[in-house]
Design a protein that fits this description.
- It is a multi-pass membrane protein.
- Its main location: membrane.
- It comes from Leptothoe kymatousa TAU-MAC 1615.
- This protein is an all-alpha fold and about 250 residues long.
- The chain has a single domain, classed as Transmembrane di-heme cytochromes, Chain C (Fumarate Reductase Cytochrome B subunit, Up-down Bundle).
- It contains eight helices and no strands.
- Helix 4 runs parallel beside helix 8.
- Bound molecules: protoporphyrin IX containing FE (2 copies).
- One protoporphyrin IX containing FE binds next to helix 1, helix 4 and helix 5.
């Protein structure tokens, strides 16, 4: 079974690559943070390194900052690689056929986006003081730990599905750094300007109708990301007011 093509758009490779790299670093440093401060479900023989929590927070934050660009791309130019409205009937009807594997692989792509949204949201609900103070029973700490497991399973399925539909060459096509002339980063500025002028033409005066045309899953991701920032900024502001005695 061969994938439809082995050339991946360069913008996809950049956004996918940066998100993936930051995420993998966040997950490795997350495991080390767990190892240093917790270890209730097993421990690896790693050195106890207290600074790892801050390093994890930094990689988590980098992932949170690049993720919106990837989501924006995935639900527009990359939308065909995500689960579609007819994915569910296809998954129940054509089990084991090539179409079935492609559909499943695209649904798993969507699941990775949702898994990462959950990991980033629960990360923003964390308080950096909990683990150093030995407070390991917070609701959001458990949520954040579970998000690591969910993310690990999602990435494993993502790699397995892509290996199944296209083999190792398909997986490697995502890591290749060569690009075609029409895909050159030099043209990105013009693409962005053209997109912006089109968007302005289609009037911002009616945001409800713009939102109603977007996929529900995309809206859930945007609302979660915005809520994560608003909740954590509100908590910080309240903490600040508390320390100055207001
Ligand atoms: C080294 C690790 C990875 C490899 C080799 C890899 C490989 C691939 C490949 C080959 C595709 C194209 C699939 C298709 O055409 O249907 C793809 C798409 C995708 N990958 Fe990964 N992936 C990796 C890590 C990740 C991670 C960590 C995430 C988590 C966010 C992720 C999320 C996605 C998504 C959402 C798409 C669809 C993008 C679109 O809509 O255009 N991948 N990946
Ligand atoms: C997929 C896995 C994970 C991702 C993507 C992730 C991401 C994040 C993000 C975005 C933040 C907020 C950073 C900020 O606002 O500055 C954060 C904070 C935090 N995470 Fe994770 N995290 C993951 C797993 C874990 C795990 C398993 C632990 C267990 C020890 C953990 C421990 C923490 C702690 C203690 C904080 C607060 C530290 C700080 O804000 O500096 N994370 N994480």
């Amino acid at each position: 079974m061969k994938p439809p093509f082995l050339y991946q758009p360069f913008l996809l490779r950049c956004l996918h690559g940066i998100t993936g790299l930051c995420l993998v670093l966040a997950m490795v440093t997350a495991a080390w943070t767990y190892n240093t401060y917790d270890g209730r479900w097993g421990q690896l023989p790693l050195p106890n390194y207290q600074e790892i929590e801050g390093i994890h927070g930094t990689f988590g934050l980098y992932t949170l900052l690049i993720f919106p660009a990837f989501v924006f791309y995935a639900f527009r130019r990359g939308h065909k690689r995500l689960g579609q409205a007819d994915s569910l009937p296809q998954l129940t009807q054509k089990i084991g056929t090539p179409v079935w594997w492609y559909t499943l692989s695209r649904c798993v792509n969507t699941v990775t986006l949702l898994a990462l949204t959950f990991a980033l949201f629960s990360g923003k609900m964390m308080d950096e003081k909990w683990l150093p103070q030995g407070e390991l029973d917070h609701f959001w700490y458990y949520g954040h730990l579970i998000s690591w497991v969910v993310m690990g399973v999602a990435i494993a399925l993502h790699l397995l599905m892509n290996a199944k539909v296209g083999g190792i060459p398909f997986l490697l096509s995502m890591l290749n750094s060569k690009f075609l002339a029409q895909d050159s980063p030099k043209l990105w500025k013009n693409h962005i300007l053209a997109w912006w002028s089109n968007t302005q033409l289609s009037s911002w005066s009616d945001p409800i109708s713009i939102m109603s045309k977007r996929p529900k899953l995309e809206l859930i991701i945007w609302f979660s990301l915005i809520a994560a920032w608003l909740i954590s900024l509100t908590k910080e502001l309240l903490g600040l007011l508390n320390t100055v005695g207001i």
